Amino acid sequence: MCYAIPGKVVEINDKIITVEYFGEQKKARNEFYNLALGEYIYAQGGLVIQRISEREALPVLESWKEMFHELAQVDKNLARETKTMYEKANAVRHKYSGNSCCVHGIIEFSNYCKHNCLYCGLRKDNKQLKRYQMEPDEIIQSAADAINLHGFKALVLQSGEDDSYTAEIMGSVVKSIMEKTPILLILSVGEKDISFYKRLYDEGARGVLLRFETSNPQLYKKMKPDSDFNKRLELIKQLRDMGYLIFTGFLAGLPGQTREDLENDIKLTTALGTDMFSFGPFIPHPQTPLANENKPSLELALNAIAKARLACPEAKILVTTSLETLDKENGAKSGLMAGGNSLMINLTPEKYRKLYEIYPQRAGTDIKVTANISRVIALLRSIGRAPTDLGI
Q: What distance in Å separates the CA atoms of residue 209 and residue 6, rounded to the nearest whole number?
């Protein structure tokens, strides 16, 4: 997004390059460019996504020069306390990732879903939900606006499991976006044939957000009665082997979930070779079978982040919108201070945004995009986080 810093290529080792940000070095994977030492690039999620000229890079670096070191000092000061579990997790995050924080945009292009997951407001039996599907040109234009108007460098394209978006349709969408302005493009469209994902990978998509939801096979079968636990895990592994960056995780606080389940959820996230942990609290939706269940405490959600950070010091951990929804005033900050180092901003066109109701009253659906960006930037600056890439 506009909260982004280019880096200078200082070392090249086949497809792995070393990028320097004001004296700090991070490694990134280069798949798209024939780079030379001294060139400038943007990286996201440990992947080179854009090459820019020195003329373009230097003014951006100059504008960040003083602030970069100020932010690093703020983060260092905040990470000194290690009394509570959250403070310990934050200190570990600082030790292994510095003050790096990435911000992705998300475009939710369809709320149709063929499944009937017990916890989700998009379930096919929810007849109260007004459904929508964005046209391919709308998706492409929304992505162009996110990139060109707001400066995003990473985007998630998300939908329910909607089979009307074929590999051919989505392949052309991905190709169009990547041809115009290369970015880190992440798919969140559910379980598809491996050929679907291969087509989109060939067109330039490089990330997949696909949660396993719970590591407990019995709980999975109960919550997702028309889905297969082992098949989902196998798909995640196949996508990782294909070369996709894997964003996965679980729901914290599902009815019937035990403390042991949560511990196993963190272990499974790690075992899957996850590039970014994505887990948030269960929030009941009134038009689902779990309508009368209680949502978990903020403490449970923050504990999951902190425990994941302590178990996996170098992990990239997303602070989800559902956590922000639990505490709209301080949820994002609390998550970042408990070990998180990534956020998402909703860029879905305003006329559709509230209709993607996986749970009610989602944070970020009732605020203008520009205002939301300003809010997030102010938050990150207040706690000393900088938009250098998290690296690999």
A: 25
Crossing angle (nearest 10°) for helices 54-78 and 85-97? 150
Determine the average pLDDT of the residues in 324-338. 94
Name the pairing type of β-strands 7-13 and 16-21.
antiparallel
Model pLDDT, residue 190: 97
Q: Mind listing the domains of the chain with CATH numbers?
A: 7-79 (2.30.30.140), 95-382 (3.20.20.70)
Mean pLDDT of 20-29: 90
Please indicate, yes or no, whether the overall pTM of this predicted structure exceeds 0.90: yes
Taking alpha carbons only, the member of 182, 137, 183, 123 closest to residue 156 is 183
Report the alpha-carbon distance of residue 182 to residue 50 in Å, rounded.
6
DSSP SS3 for 22:
coil
Residue pLDDT, tens place only, 294-319:
999 999 999 999 999 999 999 999 99
**70 CA to centre of own chain:** 26
Q: Between 298-311 and 85-97, two packed helices, what is the crossing angle to 10 degrees?
A: 40
Distances (CA, A) of 58 to 55, 62, 135, 153: 6, 6, 38, 18
